[in-house]
């Protein structure tokens, strides 16, 4: 069996495994059935580009070891409760990709579970685009594609920049929290999602341009204010993941980066609960602008990269805990899922939902993603029906604030 060396940032998502298993979940619904043989051939072609999807992860050596050479081992057909079944997903002993394939009324419904140890959200999207291209255009269309996971370019950038913030900024003094509901009903794995109307998204883009803010500023502010209403914190502190691929000076052709290349911007703004929402959006924008100008995102991963070759695993994981720890309340934005690249010939995609790991309520993460001009606010939860309903209320509350801001477009 083949063994592949890992990269330093694979370690980012190896802490807190007992309460937050590191996966990215992407659910795709089609208007009809896919060709299973064609799909299997396409997945085989993808595995030649990203062989780690056929590997288990060896934490002690930060490496990947092949456990199968048959991509059909990755596909689980006709599982009635896939998210419950996925609780058995073991990245330390199984392949890093699991696909649930259900067919309802002659329409295929696929759920991809992708290892977050292997890759981040941007890399997950690249993996899906590869699969779609091999399926739609042909296997030869990705035959010359190379996957790169190296971080040499990032280490060079970090060495060129003096750290602008003090170590430990990833642990806010007054973190956002949600109340714990007193419940005795069964806990199960649930996925919730609220879709913004297409008209809202269009108006929101206009409003953002007019106010000179980003869509991400608005989403973060809406999420922060929503959580603040239940925790009454005077400070809204959020970590905002960012894709560091943007700093690669000259991306190479025929190259993908199915890898962990994400770091964080840490934001804290003082905001009273009755302050106007537009004021909070401006505060978030100003704070993020300063963070971006200072490349503050490098702070969360610089220690790990600098000490990777010198320190044992336990100390590296402590560095991660100090600088990249799991927050009770979390935000992520997967950005745009390109509907021109995520195409499976012959079967139109009717819906895409992309989320992160399952969290036990009252832990909560909102995941923002946009596919074909439709933006979703989604979450994964291990919780009761009541806790799930509360999560849906939070997502709708966030959507309401976004709607109100969008209406300001002239």
UniProtKB/TrEMBL annotation:
One Pfam family recorded for the sequence: Condensation
GO MF: catalytic activity
BP terms from Gene Ontology: lipid biosynthetic process
Coiled coil: none
UniProt cross-references to InterPro entries, sorted A to Z: Alcohol_O-acetyltransferase, CAT-like_dom_sf, Condensation_dom
SUPFAM superfamilies noted in UniProt: CoA-dependent acyltransferases
Domain Condensation residue range list: 86-287
PANTHER family assigned: ALCOHOL O-ACETYLTRANSFERASE 1-RELATED (PTHR28037:SF1)
Annotated protein name in UniProt: NRPS condensation domain like protein
Source species: Paucilactobacillus wasatchensis
């Amino acid at each position: 069996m083949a063994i592949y060396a890992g990269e330093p940032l694979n370690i980012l998502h190896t802490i807190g495994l007992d309460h937050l298993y590191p996966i990215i979940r992407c659910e795709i619904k089609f208007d009809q059935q896919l060709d299973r043989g064609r799909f299997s051939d396409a997945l085989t072609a993808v595995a030649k580009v990203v062989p780690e999807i056929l590997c288990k992860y060896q934490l002690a050596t930060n490496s990947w070891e092949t456990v199968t050479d048959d991509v059909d081992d990755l596909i689980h057909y006709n599982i009635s409760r896939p998210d419950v079944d996925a609780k058995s997903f073991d990245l330390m002993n199984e392949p890093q990709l699991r696909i649930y394939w259900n067919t309802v009324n002659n329409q295929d419904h696929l759920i991809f579970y992708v290892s977050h140890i292997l890759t981040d959200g941007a890399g997950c999207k690249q993996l899906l685009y590869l699969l779609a291209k091999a399926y739609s255009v042909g296997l030869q269309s990705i035959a010359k594609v190379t996957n790169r996971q190296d971080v040499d370019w990032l280490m060079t950038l970090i060495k060129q920049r003096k750290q602008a913030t003090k170590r430990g900024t990833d642990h806010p003094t007054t973190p956002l929290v949600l109340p714990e509901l007193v419940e005795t009903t069964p806990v199960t794995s649930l996925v919730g999602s609220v879709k913004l109307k297409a008209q809202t998204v269009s108006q929101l883009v206009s409003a953002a341009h007019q106010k000179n803010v980003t869509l991400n500023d608005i989403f973060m502010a809406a999420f922060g204010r929503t959580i603040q209403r239940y925790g009454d914190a005077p400070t809204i502190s959020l970590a905002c993941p960012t894709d560091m691929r943007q700093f690669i000076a000259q991306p190479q052709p025929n190259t993908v980066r199915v890898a962990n290349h994400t770091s964080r911007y840490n934001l804290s703004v003082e905001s009273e609960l009755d302050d106007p929402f537009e004021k909070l959006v401006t505060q978030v924008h100003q704070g993020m602008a300063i963070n971006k100008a200072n490349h503050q995102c490098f702070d969360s991963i610089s220690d790990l990269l600098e000490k990777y070759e010198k320190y044992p695993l336990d100390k590296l994981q402590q560095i991660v805990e100090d600088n990249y720890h799991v927050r009770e309340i979390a935000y992520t934005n997967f950005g745009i899922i390109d509907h021109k690249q995520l195409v499976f010939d012959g079967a139109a995609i009717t819906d895409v939902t992309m989320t992160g790991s399952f969290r036990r309520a009252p832990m909560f993460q909102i995941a923002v993603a946009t596919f074909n001009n439709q933006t979703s606010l989604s979450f994964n939860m291990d919780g009761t029906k009541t806790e799930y309903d509360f999560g849906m209320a939070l997502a709708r509350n966030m959507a309401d604030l976004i709607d109100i801001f969008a209406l300001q477009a002239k």
